[in-house]
Amino acid sequence: MHRILSTGLCGGVLWALTGAGAAQEIGSVDTAFQWLGPNHKIVIEAFDDPKIAGVTCYVSRSRSGGVKGGLGLAEDTSDASIACRQVGPIAIKEKFKDGEEVFTERRSLLFKKMRVARFLDQPRNTLVYLVYSDKLIEGSPKNSLSAVPMMPWAGTPPKTTP
After folding, report:
1. In this predicted model, what pLDDT tens digit does every residue of 111-127 receive, in sequence order?
2. How far is residue 48 from each of residues 83, 111, 125, measured CA to CA in Å?
3. Which of 104, 59, 61 is nearest to 79 (CA)?
């Protein structure tokens, strides 16, 4: 019983730390071999915008390997890239504020997070997504940007009101 409880608790902690369930891992490539633990990697994940139907974002980011990385104790770098695309008819499901957080993933045990924020450029009818990393004491200016023009999909005009 104790072993089952420990395994469940560890799995729950790892799920909470990695943001699992919010993004789907598409694939990864190794960037450096590690003698102990997993290799360093670049991971590609996809997530659907929870308030905008028809938009999916793809984020690539580093994942530290080695013993610390394998245990979830390593602090990953602030490097990330984002590409968001229209994958179906765009419909705004509910109102949102500019700069609203769409996706978050921990990059260290306690103090660092990767975040994706969404903005609406109304004059150009375009959704803009920004990926960046922040840290409790000092953040990073490293960021990446992607824009999705809200275009008709197979003859269906975009819905811009909930």
Report:
1. 678 899 999 999 999 99
2. 12, 25, 19
3. 61
What is the number of H-type helices and E-type strands within the chain? 2, 8
Both tokens assigned to 59: 């984020």
- pLDDT above 90: residue 51: yes
Separation of alpha carbons 118 and 94, rounded Å: 13
What 115-121 contacts at long range (C-beta under 8 Å, 24+ apart), as own/partner pairs, is 116/47, 116/57, 116/59, 116/82, 118/49, 118/51, 118/52, 120/96, 121/147
pTM higher than 0.70, yes or no?
yes
Q: Give the side-chain half-sphere CA count within 13 A for 107.
A: 22
